[in-house]
Amino acid sequence: MTSLAASDNSGEIVQSNFKASFLAILISMSMLAGCFGPDEVDEVIVEEDPFFTFKEQLGNNTWYHYPGGLNAMNNTSALGGDNIPFLSAGSYYSIGMSTFEPTMGITSTGNLYMASYGNGPAGSTAVVQCSGLTSMSADNLDYTCQNVYGPFLPVANSNDPYIYVDPWTDRIMKFDMHARFLDWAYGCNWIFSTRPSNDCFFPISRNVT
Q1: β-bridge pairing 112-116 and 104-106
Q2: What is the pLDDT of residue 191?
Q3: Which of 167, 87, 168, 174 is closest to 129 using CA atoms?
Q4: What residue spans of the chain are helical by DSSP H?
Q5: pLDDT averaged per 10 residues in sequence order, the chain, 209 residues
Q6: How far, CA to CA in Å, does 77 sit from each of 51, 68, 69, 158?
Q7: Are 160 and 182 in contact (CB under 8 A)?
Q8: C-alpha–C-alpha distance, residues 58 and 52, integer Å
Q9: Under 8 Å CB-to-CB from 56, ≥6 apart: which residues?
Q10: DSSP-assigned letters across all residues of 76-133
Q11: How far is the C-alpha of 27 from the C-alpha of 22, rounded, in Å?
C-alpha cells in the first residue's frame, strides 16, 4: 500500500511539472510572437471623391472644367444636385457661348464649325469656328473659337439653327427655321460660289431636319 501511494504521488508530481513547463513555454512563445510576427500597419482611410469616382476608370482624354479652363476636380464647391459630372469617354471644352440643339461639322483642315443661337450679328445665329479643338492633347490645350458669320441683313430669330459641313467640298451650310420659312441661302453671295442660282431661295418648310 505504501509503495502504491508513493507511485501515485510521483505521477501527480510529473503531471504538475509538465503543466508548469507547458505553461512557461506558452507564455514565452506569446512574448516572442510580437518579435517574429508581421509589423502592425496603421489603417489609412481614403475618402472617395463623391463627384469624380466612377465605376469605370476615367480615361486620360477627359477633362472636367469650368469656364475659362479652371479644373473642376480641384474645386467641387459648385457641384451638387443636378449639377454633377458623369463618366465620359471624351472631353468637353467651354467656348464661351451657349446654344440649344447644337449641330456641328469638321472640315478636312480640322476646324470645327457649330451653330450658336443668338451669338451672331444683331442676335442672329452665329457660325462658330473653333481651331485647335480636334487636335488638342494633354500637352497642347490651345484653341480659339470665333464667329465667322457676317450677313448683310442678319435675322435675329431662329427656331432651329443648323450647320452642315459637306465632307467632300468642305462647304459650310447654315440655315435656320424662322417660323415656317427656311433660310438656306448662306453661301450664295460668296464671290467664288459655284452654287446654281436656283439653290438660293426661301422655301416654305416646317423644320430643317
Answers
A1: antiparallel
A2: 46
A3: 174
A4: 2-36
A5: 48 60 64 57 68 76 77 83 77 70 86 88 88 78 87 79 88 75 49 49 50
A6: 11, 16, 16, 36
A7: no
A8: 9
A9: 87
A10: -TT-BTTB-----SS-----S---SS--EEE-TTS-EEEEETT-SGGG--EEEEEESS
A11: 9
Determine the Cα–Cα distance for residues 54 and 105; give it in Å rounded to an integer: 30
Residue 47: all three cell numbers together = 475618402
pLDDT of residue 10: 56
Find out whether 107 and 165 touch, Cβ atoms under 8 Å. Answer: yes
In angstroms and rounded to an integer, the radius of gyration of the C-alpha atoms of the chain is 39
Record the cell numbers describing residue 72, joined without a space.
473642376
**What is the CB neighbour count within 10 angstroms for residue 146?**
12
Judge contact between 128 and 115, C-beta under 8 A. yes
Residue 111: its pLDDT value, please?
92
Q: How buried is 112 (Cβ within 10 angstroms: 0-12 exposed, 13-18 middle, 19+ buried)? A: buried
For residue 193, the SS3 value is coil
